[in-house]
Give the backbone structure.
Amino acid sequence: MERIRGIGILDVQSLDKAGFDRKELAKRSVGFWLKMVFESEAFHADPHPGNLFVEPDGRLGLVDFGMVCQVDDEVRWRLANALKAILDRNADLLIDALIELGAVSLRLEGSRASLRKDVKYVMVHYPTIHLQNHLETVASSLGQLFSPLRRNHIQLPSNTFLLLKTIVMAQSLGRGLDTEFDITPMLESSVIRIIKKKYSIIAALRRMPVATAQLARLAGDYPSGWIG
């Protein structure tokens, strides 16, 4: 237990009075959550402004750990696929990614065609879902995409839902500090890093048989007493 003393993250008047740079705080605050989601074994799933404080020395103090969820590399990979699908406005890839994340239909008559139609509608009518656009990008679109999921009675596992909800809330937190804040570049960087990591591991695994054979050949060139 630790006593956190500081200014509430969205007490903008006090932050300004104390001389804090709110644009920089917006990036740090959102980066705080993205680091947990994309790099840590667990993440704080409630980025409510009341849970984050700016301490006198500028450090961020986080409280209320009543909602903490685990996340592993496989879930992060699938989440990255879903986010890339949103960035690319690819409805089929998004639906596949959501299925891989554990999405299930709660009604027998539900169909992929109906879900695809609704998802495409959102993507067409919210053209700001794009890497180069600056305002109201991925996070707002994520919020809009919850509607067709509900309409088609699609349910996500609680951890997956909280992952997406956390990203949406983190964007709102950033915008509360800086009205021009856009999570997209930070999110894009995280997604690219996860995808690169995934494929570098796959490439390394594919090279392993060759590397093993090379090591075996090298081992054969040494006297038996040299190798333990």
Notes: Confidence is low (pLDDT under 50) at residues 127-137, 221-228.
